[in-house]
Amino acid sequence: MHPMLTTAVKAARRAAGIINRASQDIDALTVKHKSHNDYVSEVDRAAEQAIIDVLLTAYPSHAILAEESGAQGDSEFQWVIDPLDGTTNFLHGFPQYSVSIALLHKGQLNQAVVYDPSRNDLFTASRGQGAYLNDRRIRVSNRLKLAESLIGTGFPYRDFSHLDVYLAMFRDMLQKTSGVRRPGSAALDLAYVAAGRLDGFWEIGLNKWDIAAGCLLIQEAGGLVGDFHGDDTYIETGNVVAGNPKIFAQLLQILAPHLTPALK
């Protein structure tokens, strides 16, 4: 395992320890309302600080981009951190949430960790070295037909400006797939695509920390990731389509008729 990936795994496990302890008494947590349907707990902040402490102890000159504390430092190496992706699930005791850590080097995804504390599932990837679930190499699914595929997504919950477009996309996906799932942690959804548990995924307007690690996992597992045109702007726009190569192409075809000027 690459030394930087080893450090990221250590950081993710440190955060997971905080999350698992807090999950034993969720009612005791202090929760703040950041915006409509957007919450942050003391667990998010403590887990994020634990991750940053581990990373900067090992690599003090590296930059950080974290969901709760924002950007710090200036370096060609930048760690992108979501300490608890799926906070709403966590606060309801719904066991579908994750820790997501990615490393960008000169803007290119280089290392990735997505860790599911509830199931002790550790997804990892280093550029050019493949993707793994725990110690097992993983690959995207080999399904060829969208009609036989299980697709992941995320519902709009803060920004409803594209709600009508999303609902039109969702309607078509329901009719042309084997099923659509919305578990509530985009990082984990993307990891599931990498592991073949989902055949594809799409969502509008995600943040960099939601998707950075998961996207590298998919690429290293033989899948494709792009924006709604299949291009590589997804990290910046947050508009993401992912899947095995055959399903990726079919997803783009389903989504294309619904794209507004704001999404093109």
UniProtKB/TrEMBL annotation:
<feature type="binding site">
    <location>
        <position position="67"/>
    </location>
    <ligand>
        <name>Mg(2+)</name>
    </ligand>
</feature>
<dbReference type="GO" id="GO:0006020">
    <property type="term" value="P:inositol metabolic process"/>
</dbReference>
<dbReference type="Pfam" id="PF00459">
    <property type="entry name" value="Inositol_P"/>
</dbReference>
<keyword id="KW-0378">Hydrolase</keyword>
<feature type="binding site">
    <location>
        <position position="210"/>
    </location>
    <ligand>
        <name>Mg(2+)</name>
    </ligand>
</feature>
<dbReference type="InterPro" id="IPR033942">
    <property type="entry name" value="IMPase"/>
</dbReference>
<protein>
    <recommendedName>
        <fullName>Inositol-1-monophosphatase</fullName>
        <ecNumber>3.1.3.25</ecNumber>
    </recommendedName>
</protein>
<dbReference type="GO" id="GO:0046872">
    <property type="term" value="F:metal ion binding"/>
</dbReference>
<keyword id="KW-0479">Metal-binding</keyword>
<dbReference type="GO" id="GO:0007165">
    <property type="term" value="P:signal transduction"/>
</dbReference>
<dbReference type="GO" id="GO:0046854">
    <property type="term" value="P:phosphatidylinositol phosphate biosynthetic process"/>
</dbReference>
<dbReference type="InterPro" id="IPR022337">
    <property type="entry name" value="Inositol_monophosphatase_SuhB"/>
</dbReference>
<dbReference type="InterPro" id="IPR020550">
    <property type="entry name" value="Inositol_monophosphatase_CS"/>
</dbReference>
<dbReference type="InterPro" id="IPR020583">
    <property type="entry name" value="Inositol_monoP_metal-BS"/>
</dbReference>
<feature type="binding site">
    <location>
        <position position="82"/>
    </location>
    <ligand>
        <name>Mg(2+)</name>
    </ligand>
</feature>
<feature type="binding site">
    <location>
        <position position="84"/>
    </location>
    <ligand>
        <name>Mg(2+)</name>
    </ligand>
</feature>
<dbReference type="GO" id="GO:0008934">
    <property type="term" value="F:inositol monophosphate 1-phosphatase activity"/>
</dbReference>
<comment type="similarity">
    <text>Belongs to the inositol monophosphatase superfamily.</text>
</comment>
<feature type="binding site">
    <location>
        <position position="85"/>
    </location>
    <ligand>
        <name>Mg(2+)</name>
    </ligand>
</feature>
<dbReference type="InterPro" id="IPR000760">
    <property type="entry name" value="Inositol_monophosphatase-like"/>
</dbReference>
<keyword id="KW-0460">Magnesium</keyword>
